[in-house]
Amino acid sequence: MKRQLIITAGLPGAGKSRWARRERRKPETFVFSWRAIVQQMCSRDGDPVMEGYAEALGPLLRVLAEDQSKMTTRLIVDSTNHERGLRNAMIALGAETDREVICETFDVPKDLCEIRSKLSETKGGRLIFAEIASRWEQVLPSEGFAGVHYHHGRRTSPEVMERGQKRRRSLLSRLRAMLKE
Q1: How many Å apart are CA 59 and CA 23, to the nearest integer?
Q2: What is the 3-class SS of 29-63, one letter each residue?
Q3: Minimal CA–CA distance to 42: which of 115, 133, 125?
Q4: How far, in Å, CA of 3 to CA of 97, rounded?
Q5: Which residues lie below 8 Å from residue 53, measured CB to CB, with a gap of 6+?
Q6: What's 64's DSSP letter?
Q7: Which of 16-30, 36-50, 162-176 has the lowest mean pLDDT?
Q8: Does the pLDDT value for residue 91 go beyond 70?
Q9: pTM score, two decimals?
Q10: Radius of gyration of the CA atoms of the chain, in A
Q11: Mind listing the domains of the chain with CATH numbers?
Q12: Of the residues 6, 102, 110, 179, which has the fewest C-beta atoms closer than 10 A?
């Protein structure tokens, strides 16, 4: 099996991370999650953007891809990759590290993603979601990937998703109340 760089592409809440977690169980697979890196950086004191952490993510991924090239067959990058420029950078990285680049595209309607996305739980998160959605560029097979696979997500109605979100918020508020006691 040829070494692969597998990228995910889709709006927040489309199911990319869930898919990546399931794929991580396969042998010789490593998942690089942008969310985990950003959350770790945001937990520090200070503003991660102002302190230049965001600019460090690209070089970090490059080093990781080079290291993982020796150790694993499948490297999955779990991120939105919502613009062609971002995806082109991943294709170039695949060429540099001698990996075929495959794109797993999560083509889920925006309204469902918005309900499912954890970003929608805060005002700032909703602004980030809106910004990503406004810049979304559809993945085209002609972009240069070795393969493009389309995922259409679960066929869950917005009402069912909203009920689930309300239950999750209720549980979180009860847990916070218990912790304050």
Answers
A1: 24
A2: EEEEEHHHHHHHHHCCCCCCCCCCHHHHHHHHHHH
A3: 125
A4: 9
A5: 41
A6: H
A7: 36-50
A8: yes
A9: 0.71
A10: 18
A11: 4-155 (3.40.50.300)
A12: 179
The residue type at 60: L
How do residues 104-158 score in pLDDT, each as one tens digit? Answer: 999 888 888 887 787 777 887 788 888 889 999 999 888 999 999 999 865 555 5
Task: Enter the tokens of residue 32.
Answer: 């690089």
More confident position, 13 or 45: 13
Contacts from 116-123 at CB under 8 Å and sequence distance 24+?
116/13, 116/14, 116/15, 116/161, 116/165, 117/11, 117/12, 117/13, 118/12, 118/13, 119/12, 119/13, 120/13, 120/165, 121/165, 121/169
CB atoms within 10 A of CB 44: 10
